[in-house]
């Protein structure tokens, strides 16, 4: 199945699409990724594509995300633009014995996707997780100059020294 420009479903039913394949291409908005919305904004939309295919008994999920995220610089608090363009590949396995067949690829077990014969792959959640993991812990501009407050640079009047009286008494005793 190929779909374009329609909204990406929140879940992909593996029993339905694993054998015939699934392909989707389109755009994701910030409204579709609520956890990401707490950390960043999307400048426009994120271009995304998802492909699901079964090869040699293993279900492979390939997806790409590209776009511009707007974060807040932790130094100057101004917007910081972060370009993202990532490709991900994930194997969906029936059991851990199949891990020997996928080389060092990331994988997900069918048991983690639900009990019984219905396995829903939460594609939007997976994409959102990858975007969140790719965000810097403390975003800041490379050449960020913090604003200097002019009030802090004024000379301060010297404070009275509480030991000045003792110094005067010491001079009288000598």
TrEMBL record:
Coiled coil: none annotated. GO terms for cellular component: cytosol. The keyword tRNA processing does not apply. One of its GO terms (biological process) is ribosome biogenesis. InterPro entries: YceD, YceD_bac. The keyword Zinc-finger does not apply. Keywords: Ribosome biogenesis. It holds the Pfam family YceD. It comes from the Bacteria. PANTHER family: LARGE RIBOSOMAL RNA SUBUNIT ACCUMULATION PROTEIN YCED (PTHR38099:SF1). Belongs to the DUF177 domain family. Plays a role in synthesis, processing and/or stability of 23S rRNA. This is Large ribosomal RNA subunit accumulation protein YceD. It comes from Moraxella cuniculi.
């Amino acid at each position: 199945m190929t779909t374009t420009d329609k909204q990406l479903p929140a879940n992909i039913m593996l029993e339905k699409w694993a054998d015939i394949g699934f392909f989707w291409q389109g755009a994701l908005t910030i409204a579709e990724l609520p956890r990401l919305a707490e950390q960043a904004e999307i400048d426009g939309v994120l271009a995304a594509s998802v492909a699901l295919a079964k090869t040699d008994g293993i279900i492979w999920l390939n997806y790409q995300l590209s776009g511009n995220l707007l974060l807040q610089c932790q130094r100057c608090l101004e917007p910081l633009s972060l370009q993202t363009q990532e490709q991900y590949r994930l194997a969906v396995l029936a059991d851990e014995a199949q891990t020997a067949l996928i080389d060092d690829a990331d994988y997900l077990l069918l048991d983690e996707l639900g009990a019984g014969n219905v396995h829903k792959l939460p594609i939007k959640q997976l994409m959102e997780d990858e975007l969140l993991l790719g965000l810097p812990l403390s975003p800041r501009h490379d050449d960020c100059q913090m604003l200097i407050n002019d009030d802090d640079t004024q000379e301060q009047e010297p404070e009275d020294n509480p030991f000045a009286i003792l110094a005067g008494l010491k001079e009288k005793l000598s």
